[in-house]
Amino acid sequence: MYPLLQGLSVIEASSFVASPTAGLYCAQFGAEVIRVDQIGGGPDFRRWPVTGENDSLYWENLNRGKKSVALDLSSPQGRELLQELVRATGQFITNFPVGGFLSHETLSQGRADLITVRVMGWADGAPALDYTVNNAVGYPMMTGPGPEPVNHVLPAWDLLSGAYAAFALLAAIQRRSVSGEGGEVRIPLSDVAIGTVANLGGIAEVLYSGENRPRLGNAVYGLFGRDFVTADGQRTMIVVVTPRQWSNLIAALGLEGPVAAVEAERGVSFAKDDGLRYDHRDALFPLFEAAIGARSHADLAAALDAGGIVHSAYRTMLDAARDPRLVGDNPMFSAFDANPSGFAYPAAGPFGTVPQLERGAPQAAPRNGQHSEQVLAERLNLSSGEIARLIDTGIVGTPS
Amino acid sequence: MYPLLQGLSVIEASSFVASPTAGLYCAQFGAEVIRVDQIGGGPDFRRWPVTGENDSLYWENLNRGKKSVALDLSSPQGRELLQELVRATGQFITNFPVGGFLSHETLSQGRADLITVRVMGWADGAPALDYTVNNAVGYPMMTGPGPEPVNHVLPAWDLLSGAYAAFALLAAIQRRSVSGEGGEVRIPLSDVAIGTVANLGGIAEVLYSGENRPRLGNAVYGLFGRDFVTADGQRTMIVVVTPRQWSNLIAALGLEGPVAAVEAERGVSFAKDDGLRYDHRDALFPLFEAAIGARSHADLAAALDAGGIVHSAYRTMLDAARDPRLVGDNPMFSAFDANPSGFAYPAAGPFGTVPQLERGAPQAAPRNGQHSEQVLAERLNLSSGEIARLIDTGIVGTPS
Question: Fewer CB near the terminus (10 Å): N or C of chain B?
Fold first, then answer.
């Protein structure tokens, strides 16, 4: 935790990945993020992976450092309490439907300067998920060795939408600080996906060429990069992005002569041109496969490191979780045993490191309704008697 | 373009995807983003996809709406000019090395409240790229039907790091507006990747179970979701996340009886439990394969839409680029013919839609050095004579 956003409070009414990560990133930078859920948990409260006791390891990591208010959102009174919390706070992150009781139009009545950031499926309000926008924009047809499409496992569009939502929230706050005006920023997953295709040149590329990029397996488009297997069977990714890395790589592998022979035969120079190294990969890859296949991974890694060449071994997630550089010795992680699940494991702080500030410890996710009483008292000035009545009538939930 | 960040100026010295997208998102929200590059273009200036004239369709989309200053960054004087531009502006996005002439320590001498956001490879300064952190954290070993690892094609870690960098910039500005203090936020790709594994519960999952998640092909972990093929051969992704979607899906496919038979045989109820639908996918998937395989895609899509069930057909990127809903009729896109490449195609604006504001038109990427004279005059108060001398001596570049 770094206190960059200290003093900012946000109401989050959301589920799954995209809008919860927006709240998480804000909380990790010191904002007060109050997540409001259905009593007993929203649709993502038991999302897998879960423990043997059905506690979600997913939920308890996506909601670290947030406060939890539990309301009966199927009742008019519960819905009103959420609306009032949003109005009293002034900043709102959600993936609730654009037109329902959490529409910006409804919420901004009584809070004209409200800022709402809403992650959506399609821009027109139709439902979509990471896994459906991904195949709508074409990536699975380009992924893997073919011929079948391959879905990504990483929910990349959710994650990008979440980080962009956190950015959009602060951008809208920046504007309000100048103009006094609030407003809504709608972020449809479908626009994030097709907009990213456009930003990376993909729309231009396919319309220019009139055809789809070929499948490349594990090779990288437009430069020299691919997975290779060492003599001791370690698959390793190697990617070259600078002239120095290229010359160091062929020197490290003793391939100066064979590469020069390809250059002479084809009348090209690979020294400074990513595209040529890609175009002539049919001639280059076999040379590198043989040279790398004759070395142990330890020898290869040492030679590549000495040459500043970017490489990394393929690992499983369990290997990664046990890796000192990635987790054990990484200051972004701290040993942590205060998780709602009761399971102890390294907890992550924010991705960003601020050398000028002390890194605060990671925090626990709340139990459902853990902060209901505190938040209703502080934000809505409800008396303890009023809150007790709301709990008794099942409108407000607290941990059992 | 929406003017949320009007009045904010940022210097960007960067290349490839991550830090250029941070600048792009700021520019699309109205910030003045001044990209400073080597004269003739940085290492990403000819990155594929390129046109027949070797103009990068990638570069001209990742840098829309930015200004370009071209300097000879191999000369001490060029480097000093970049340092002075950063100090004069006060906000800096970069992926240059942490310890070089663009270190925050060096730059903040003379500009104590400077904010630097730096995208890095590893946190310790060692080089890494999207494609190498991805296999270091385990995703390719979980992707595809197996047994070989499958790299993603989408540069997901770069994209997430870029959006997070834009967020971190505004968070640091927010803190400075309160405290007066600047500082650096370092965002290593490796921490974004392993931190995301942690945020999604992956670290906890593998340490809890002691094993890796099995490969699932195109199925989604922990809920009912997979690709199916219709009678007319259209592969379609279907994902169920709510009880209502589940009951509507089995009704739409006439599977109430067969699903009830599985429930009776196995002693479970699928009505409200994502995890059970996933656990018993061996019994469920064949029922759905047969029911979907007996219908045309048009019939299936109509039935799913009527039930609010999330689905989408697999398409190629060319199909996506020609799709009216995604591009042609999507207000995020505008027809655009002022690209440096000379090729005309739909250009994307920001992912976020602000209903309260008018959407400005997308803008062109600059030519290398297009704004050198303007920016040096405005930001560093150089006279036209001084600028002319810098151009003559090759320290400053302008479009040829």
Answer: C
- Residue B221's closest CA among B145, B285, B148, B275? B275
CA distance A145 to A149: 9
Task: Look at residue A34 and give its three-state secondary structure.
Answer: strand
Chain A residue nearest residue B245, CA to CA: A127
Q: Name every chain B residue with its beta carbon within 8 A of the beta carbon of A161.
A: 351
At residue A277, the 3 state secondary structure works out as helix
CA-CA-CA-CA torsion sign (A187, A190, A194, A196) = positive
Residue found by looking up tokens 């995703």 in the block: B139
Q: Which of B5, B151, B235 to mutate to test the interface with A (most CBs of A within 10 A)?
A: B151
261-320 in chain B: CB under 8 A from chain A? 273-275, 278, 308, 310-320
**A185, closest residue in chain B (CA to CA):** B354
Residues 6 or more apart whose Cβ sits within 8 Å of residue A209: B49
Q: Where are the alpha helices (DSSP H) in A180-327?
A: 189-199, 202-209, 243-252, 256-266, 274-279, 281-293, 297-306, 317-321
DSSP for A214-250, written as a single string: PP-TTPPTTSEEEEEE-TT--EEEEEE-SHHHHHHHH
Question: What pLDDT, on the 0 to 100 scale, is given for residue A400?
Answer: 82
**Paired sense of beta strands B345-348 and B333-336, if any:** antiparallel
| Predicted pLDDT at A396 | 98
Mean pLDDT for each 10-residue chunk of chain A (400 residues)? 97 97 98 98 96 98 98 98 98 96 97 98 95 98 95 97 98 97 98 98 98 96 98 98 96 98 98 96 98 98 97 98 97 97 98 96 97 98 98 96
Candidates B122, B71, B57; CA nearest to B347 is B57
User: If you search the block for the tokens 């011929």, which residue do you land on?
Assistant: A147
Q: Which of B351, B353, B358, B363 to mutate to test the interface with A (most CBs of A within 10 A)?
A: B351
Residues A349 and A1 sit within 8 Å (Cβ to Cβ): yes
CB < 8 Å to A53, chain B: none
Give the model confidence (pLDDT) of A124-149 as tens digits. Answer: 999 999 999 999 999 999 999 999 99
pTM of the model: 0.98
